[in-house]
Amino acid sequence: MKFQEIKNNIFYCGLNDRERRIFDELIPLEHGTSYNSYLVKGSEKIAIIDTMYPPKSDEYVKNLDENNVTKVDYIIANHGEQDHSGSIPKLLAKYPDAIVVTNAKCKDNIIEMLHVDEAKIKVITDGEELSLGDKTLKFIIAPGVHWPDTMFTHIVEDNLLCTCDFLGAHYTFDNLYSPDNCTIEHSAKRYYAEIMMPFRTMCKKYTKMIHDMKPEMILPSHGPIYKNPDFILDLYADWSADEGKNLVLLPYVSMYKSTEEMIEYLAKKLAAKGIDTQVFDIVTGDLGDLAMGLVDATTLVMGCSMVLAGPHPMAANVAYLANLLRPKTRFASIVGSYGWGGNLTGKLGEMLSGLKLEMIEPLLIKGKPEAEDFEKLDIMAETIYEKHKSVNLV
Ligand code: FEO
Question: In Å, what is the CA distance from 289 to each residue of 221, 274, 279, 286?
Fold first, then answer.
């Protein structure tokens, strides 16, 4: 595969992984993913920015051979996670004179995880520059988006910014450049939800910083290149904003349809009040869709059956995931049904407690809902409406 030139001797040398169907063994990939790597040929030195996911190393190295890359002086490691750093040992074997350039935290990770010889690593600090002759690489330490070792690399004269995982998308492509359409928006939002949302404050900070830098293009380490940086920066500004949307997310698991009936009823009542709803079947749904719902939801209502004497384990899994993702959700409640007893709302409430949500009176019933239960759901819908009104969403 011939490397495509992005600008003035800067080439894309990454790979698509169209067959990959799950990332982190957790979130399904709708479009596979790409592992982006960039070859920067200065007048005196040659650098590669980020490398490759280990299972793709052979193909990656073969492509370097086919493109006659016989010399590499610097391997820039923006991040130690192995989907980007994993091929460093192979590159060092291929280019024995190359030096890995990275920050102190990433250096430790590369040594500990990949067993790279410390003598082969040059440590840089925030704002430091590295000359390639007619091109300069400037490093911006950006901890938190999404590892403590993350940094960005600015190719100064060409004003291209390599943002590592930040602003990326799990997406594969033939054309390197983002079409800036709703498909890319969907993939980028899914990626943000799963990977960046727990670090929302840092996302806000770096979104603004990059906006002020005005790079000509953004070169992330997954997904297409943004020729129009404002497309992705505006989306990040929206997703990472402090205010949620007028949206209630209702994930549920229902063994005998009672919980499902209550969740569907509540969703209908909320919709009638002008509140957007997203009902999510935990058993058949895609966790990526759930995570995307958490980006915007102001309220979370968990629907849950009792298993033995506690919440259904699949609802517990969602509560655990929500805690990890740390969404900006403000309010929550629980709707559930049981057969013979146990502690559902208490235990599930405890599982959600890390999110510091304002809890709305839950509803737990025995068996199938009846008229008085639906009246209680009417009250729950009205309470949620009032909560959304209190934060100026309706
Ligand atoms: Fe794409 Fe954090 O690695």
Answer: 22, 22, 11, 5
Q: Which residues line ligand 1 at a C-beta cut-off of 6 Å?
A: 79, 81, 83-84, 146-147, 165, 221-222
- Counted residue by residue, the chain has a size of 394
Percent of the chain whose pLDDT exceeds 70 = 100
Using H for helix, E for strand and C for coil, what is the string for 242-288? Answer: CCCEEEEEEEEECCCCHHHHHHHHHHHHHHHCCCEEEEEECCCCCHH
Show the tokens assigned to 10.
């800067």
CA 82 to ligand 1: nearest atom: 3
Question: Minimal CA–CA distance to 258: which of 384, 364, 376?
Answer: 364
pTM: 0.95
List, for residues 184-217, the tens digit of each pLDDT value.
999 999 999 999 999 999 999 999 999 999 999 9
**Which atom of ligand 1 lies closest to the CA of 165?**
1
Report CA(90)–ligand 1 centroid distance (Å): 19
Return d(Cα 179, Cα 16) in angstroms, integer: 17
Closest Cα to atom 2 of ligand 1: 81
